[in-house]
Amino acid sequence: MMLKHAQFTTLVTAERDKRANFHTLLSCVMPRPIALVSTISGDGVRNLAPFSFFNAVGSNPPAIIFSPATRPDGTQKDTLVNLRECPEMVVHVVPHAIQEAMNQASAQYAPETDEFERCGFTPLPSRLVKPARVAESAVQMECKLVRIVPVGEGPLSANICIGEVLCFHVADGYLLDNETVDVDKIDLISRMGGDWYATIRDRFELGKPVRPEPA
User: Fold this and answer.
1) Which helix (H) or strand (E) holds 199?
2) Contacts of 212 (CB under 8 A, 6+ apart)
3) Can you give the pLDDT of all 215 residues of the chain as single tens digits?
4) Cα 157 off chain centre by
5) pTM of the predicted model, to two decimals?
6) β-strand 62-66 against 139-151: which pairing, if any?
7) Distance in Å from the first CA to the final CA of the chain
8) What DSSP designation does 14 have?
9) Phi and psi torsions of 183, nearest 5°
10) Three-state secondary structure readout of 120-164
């Protein structure tokens, strides 16, 4: 339903608790794609973590962004620490079949924990970067870190990681002739607000409009 004359409640972010802003933002900006990011520490410990502050931002070169937000206690997530030690990553899409393992990888494990082993993922060697790939994901993007852009300071502040995609790994039978990935086969999930997730199974097609003639 299109709103015409609705009444609105105005929420001034500077006057609200940071967690309240966090919950409102995430329940407004949805569905959000999920990146399952593989990194490696300077000591060689493999790390996996999902992020829903994630998207594609360019194609020349192919580029993605994701943001490991600073924890509520002000500490940084292992992914961010690892990228400063080894500026490479593998970004994976998250199909419905691995939802439980992906969710398990979001737990706050000790830095010395190998989350491939802890969450039941199968590591595959990458071709161009040091971090391992997740065999259970149908699309894996090997990336080099371009830069980290901080936004804000302290708890819940953003750390936008920009990655250049060096190569794609697409499961056999998933890539179509038009160079897109088969939406039905990939069966991705997305993040909503709270504890809610969604699938991409309910879809509609909307073609781009024809360029209008000059008036």
Assistant:
1) strand 197-199
2) none
3) 666 777 888 899 999 998 898 889 888 888 999 999 999 999 999 999 999 999 999 999 999 999 999 999 999 999 999 999 999 999 999 999 999 999 999 999 999 999 999 999 999 999 999 999 999 999 999 999 999 999 999 999 999 999 999 999 999 999 999 999 999 999 999 999 889 999 999 888 889 888 888 87
4) 16
5) 0.90
6) unpaired
7) 31
8) G
9) -65, -40
10) CCCEECCCCCCCCEECCCCEEEEEEEEEEEEECCCCCCEEEEEEE
Helices in 11-140 by DSSP H: which ranges? 18-28, 78-85, 99-104, 115-119
Locate 96 and state its tokens. Answer: 């419905």
Separation CA 202–CA 198 (nearest Å):
10
Amino acid 44 reads: G
Q: Residue 97 and residue 157: Cα distance in Å, rounded?
A: 31
- Residue 99 amino acid letter: Q
